[in-house]
Amino acid sequence: MNETHEDQAGSTYDVVVLGAGPVGQNVADRARTAGLTVAVVEHELVGGECSYWACVPSKALLRPVIAVANARRVDGARQAVTGALDTARVFARRDHYVTDWDDSGQAKWVKSIGADLFRGHGRIDGPRRVIVTSDQGARRTLTARHAVAVATGSRPQLPDIPGIQEAHPWTNRLGTDSSTVPGRLAIVGGGGVGAEMATLWQGLGSHVTLLARRNLLPRLEPFVGELLAESLSRSGADVRIGRQVTSLTRPDPAGPVTLTLDDGSQVEADEVMFATGRAPNTHDIGLDTVGLTPGSWLDVDTTCLVNGLAGGWLYALGDVNHRALLTHQGKYQARTAGDAIGARAAGSPVDDAAWGDHATTADQHAVPQVFFTDPEAAAVGLTAEQAAGAGFRIKVVDADFNAAQGADLYADDYQGHARMVVDLDREILLGVTFAGPGVSELLHSATVAVAGQVPLKRLRHAIACFPTVSEIWLFLLAAYRRE
């Protein structure tokens, strides 16, 4: 494995990958499987944002919080929960799963697939060429015969608010790698990151104030955010919907921060976290050298080939193409694009029609997403609003989980809701949404139904085992037939 710092010579590969997170690793692996030579460039930790500051640490931290919450929902078990979470052990668990921020294991994996790893900042320098600059300043030129794949991810985007720099705000990185529980934590933003971080830090003992301009988890069905807001409020969090921060003050960097809101009220906290959006890591990778705009999201076709660029050599995968800022979706794109790169390199046909081997069709029709809040939220496909806006003739079918005995046995007084959006012309599912304890494990069945376009007439023959939470399917399908 090359971890080049001093060698000034250039090297030629079939594929050069910028970014060694899960997305970059997947496209590299697929290209190697196709028999292509691959160079992978990474300027931070091999494994990327997901492995060290996002998906993995947040879920490692959230699992104890959710486990205790679920235990408290079951009589006989709740009596065994007699104390607070051991935060030191929770943080130690997180450290274990992020391997103490040591990426040597993932670096070895890159070597194991036969790819070369170059540590340093990669910058495109004209068509099919990348210059890698090491931390020590050494430069090396990599040339790609067939493709350069951009998988550099995204970073937090802070709003332009007076006093924000002086407030030293947390973003998702400090939200997941901190090992101190603030007494009071203000979180700005009610999307996925904000909602999960509110669940986490309230569960670890912080008093959380969650400020959101609109409904929590606003890209999901409205009932999800409503259930989550109620649950967070019951846990002691201060949830304020429809509020915006107009300024921040923090005279002492070690002291409290004061947030002034658009209604004139103020919130004082020991720390403030912003979860208000992401920006693509494309600002310093040399897009200008090939006629693209630095800092832009990259527009791609169904194979993730960048549109509007001559030569068919630049691919954009994962967050940078802005289709779905989700690790699993980026990995799906990477696998698909890697196969397409291999086919094009071999001169083989490219199957880029809808649901073809080289088409990322699920990006438009069947994106699954889970939020490990309390209650959990899980959805795939279109919401009712999105489906109606796209011109489909739909029926919206709702069911409460408390109708299913399996849910009742899972948690006493189970509180949850489910919705499916039906395309009436084809009688298939366009989208499914669940909110409730443990619903993350229901989502793949819904994803198969949506991606597979399973007719409802056939889906009713997929029997849900008794007594499980998945019995909710029986009630959804029964409600559809009755209406």
General description of the model:
- It is an enzyme of class 1 (oxidoreductase).
- Keywords: Oxidoreductase.
- It comes from Streptomyces achmelvichensis.
- This is NAD(P)/FAD-dependent oxidoreductase.
- The protein folds into three domains: 11-47 and 103-155 and 280-362, 3-Layer(bba) Sandwich (FAD/NAD(P)-binding domain); 172-276, FAD/NAD(P)-binding domain (3-Layer(bba) Sandwich); 375-482, FAD/NAD-linked reductase, C-terminal dimerisation domain (Enolase-like, domain 1, 2-Layer Sandwich).
- With 483 residues, it is of the alpha/beta class.
- Strand 5 (129-133) and strand 6 form a beta hairpin.
- The chain has 15 helices and 21 strands.
How do the helices and strands line up, and which of them pair or pack?
Blueprint: E1 11-18, H1 22-33, E2 38-42, H2 48-52, H3 55-71, H4 87-97, H5 104-112, E3 116-119, E4 121-124, E5 129-133, E6 139-150, E7 154-156, H6 172-177, E8 184-188, H7 192-203, E9 207-212, H8 222-234, E10 238-241, E11 245-249, E12 257-261, E13 266-269, E14 271-274, E15 278-280, E16 314-316, H9 327-346, H10 362-365, E17 368-371, E18 376-381, H11 384-389, E19 394-400, H12 405-410, E20 417-423, E21 428-436, H13 443-451, H14 456-459, H15 472-482
